[in-house]
Amino acid sequence: MVKEVDKAISYFEKVCEKGKGKGCIKAGEVYKNLKKDNEQSKVFFKKACSFGFKDYCFN
User: Fold this and answer.
1) CA-CA distance, 56 to 49, in Å (whole number)?
2) How far apart are CA 44 and CA 23, in angstroms?
3) What's the CA gap between 33 and 20, in Å, rounded?
4) Radius of gyration over alpha carbons of the chain, in Å?
5) What are the two backbone dihedrals, phi and then psi, of residue 56, each rounded to the nearest 5 degrees?
6) Are 19 and 11 in contact (CB under 8 A)?
7) Element containing residue 59 per DSSP (H, E)
8) Which domain holds residue 7?
9) Whole-structure pTM value
């Protein structure tokens, strides 16, 4: 399963870098829920916020 998670992260990160906020959200969710990496998830949620997804804007 680790290989599939890494593939998913790679895909979602690429989508995010192309300016697609939903890719940022998905990358953040994978980091938070599967990798248990809250710091990295915050990076992607912050990017999603910058693309207009206000539910992912945190202080």
Assistant:
1) 5
2) 9
3) 20
4) 11
5) -105, 15
6) no
7) none
8) 2-56
9) 0.90
